[in-house]
Design brief:
mainly alpha, 68% helix
Length: 111
């Protein structure tokens, strides 16, 4: 006869839900919030670098035309209200590379 574990013995080895609500969970939540804030700040810096302008409105106008999203969405990314989706990050990075490559060809390499 095979030794098959009973449902009760399986439950005994399952960690209790309280294990995930202690101080370690708070640290993980805090570190996740810190990571998210840092990520949103980096996204905003990337947008500012790509679509340079004197005001947030000017930046959002350029960004919305290039990315095909609303100006309000660009403002939300600049203010860190929303996370930028990966497609938008890739598009902005590609745009920056193209602009910088064109500028290097026009001005020549400065080393």
């Amino acid at each position: 006869m095979h030794n098959i574990a009973s449902p009760n013995s399986l439950l005994q080895n399952t960690p209790s839900p309280s294990r995930f609500t202690g101080p370690r969970r708070n640290n993980l939540t805090k570190s996740n919030a810190v990571f998210r804030a840092a990520s949103r700040n980096a996204d905003a810096a990337l947008i500012r670098r790509a679509f340079d302008g004197p005001t947030q409105s000017a930046i959002s106008e350029k960004g919305s035309q290039t990315l095909g999203v609303s100006q309000r969405q660009i403002v939300n990314w600049l203010q860190g209200v929303n996370d930028m989706p990966s497609w938008a990050i890739k598009a902005v990075l590609y745009y920056v590379q193209c602009v910088e490559s064109a500028a290097e060809r026009i001005e020549g390499r400065h080393e």
